[in-house]
Automatic annotation (TrEMBL):
One of its GO terms (molecular function) is hydrolase activity. Its EC number is 5.4.2.6. NCBIfam families: HAD-SF-IA-v3, PGMB-YQAB-SF. This is Beta-phosphoglucomutase. It catalyses: beta-D-glucose 1-phosphate = beta-D-glucose 6-phosphate. Keywords: Carbohydrate metabolism, Hydrolase, Isomerase, Magnesium, Metal-binding, Phosphoprotein.
Length: 258
């Protein structure tokens, strides 16, 4: 989808008007094209589970939908919380299980481990693609002395940044591992963004948040950030969902790259 000329160029002006000094970026779907790989791994795992794995609960289930289930229940959410969200939505229950469980155990941990195996396979076979518009804009803003942070619910965040060779574009990183160590709540709670602002040593009101996930936009809104920007890499209906989740504006591309 082409960039909306109304929204993207406004961004640079808005940063100035709102006295923004730091930029906090979500990883998957904003900086790297890895949200698609997560969605594909989730679909493969859940479809296998829905076809063969259900012992208790409604047996006839529609397959996992990348268009509807992913943004509602999994996008931007930690691995285990995402699984719990999806199971609840489908009226299914599984025991939590143990961190070493395999898929065959039919536990939340078993499903999580299998999904991660599938995601790792996709990272190996497809590699990590960046969004060139985001990277160009981040470099431009860093040259203008904006501070930058990367946040992600993902425990694979550092691996993805290293694969794309972009970890040095961020002053601060708060990812899934750090969130676990510090007991930060999953989006839509604002914890991960607030922690990034704290480490940047800049008040949230002077930070802008960039998110492609509905839960992430809600988190930015809940944290009272100076600007919450929905980054829509999908279709127009997703732009509406991001605005309804609390996005101050929605862009389809970063400025300067049209
Ligand atoms: C991102 C993705 C989610 C994923 C989450 C955890 O936010 O949008 O789909 O579940 O990270 O990722 P992980 O790599 O730790 O399973
Ligand atoms: Mg994302």
């Amino acid at each position: 989808m082409p960039a909306s000329p109304k929204t993207a160029p406004n961004l640079n002006k808005l940063l100035q008007q709102k006295n923004i000094r730091a930029l906090i970026f979500d990883l998957d779907g904003v900086v790297t094209q890895t949200a698609k790989l997560h969605a594909a791994a989730w679909k493969k795992m859940f479809d296998e589970f829905l076809q063969n794995g259900i012992e208790n609960g409604p047996k006839s289930q529609p397959p996992f939908s990348i268009q509807t289930d992913y943004p509602r229940y999994l996008d931007g959410i930690s691995r285990l919380d995402g699984i719990r969200n999806f199971l609840l939505a489908r009226n299914l229950e599984l025991p939590p299980g143990q961190p070493e469980d395999t898929f065959e155990k039919r536990s939340v941990w078993g499903l999580a481990n299998y999904k991660n195996e599938l995601y790792q396979q996709l990272l190996q076979t497809q590699g990590v693609a960046i969004y060139p518009d985001t990277i160009t804009w981040i470099k431009q803003k860093r040259a203008e002395n904006f501070r930058t942070a990367i946040i992600s619910a993902s425990k694979n965040c550092l691996q993805v940044l290293q694969a794309a060779q972009i970890e040095n574009l961020f002053d601060v990183r708060i990812d899934g591992n750090i969130s676990q160590e510090r007991n930060l709540k999953s989006k839509p709670e604002p914890d991960i963004f607030l922690e990034a602002a704290r480490e940047l040593n800049i008040s949230p009101t002077n930070c802008a948040v960039f998110e492609d996930a509905r839960a992430g936009v809600q988190a930015g809104k809940a944290g009272n950030f100076g600007l919450v920007v929905g980054v829509n890499r999908k279709d127009a209906s997703e732009a509406k969902a991001l605005l309804e989740s609390g996005g101050g504006l929605v862009i389809t591309q970063f400025p300067g790259s049209q």
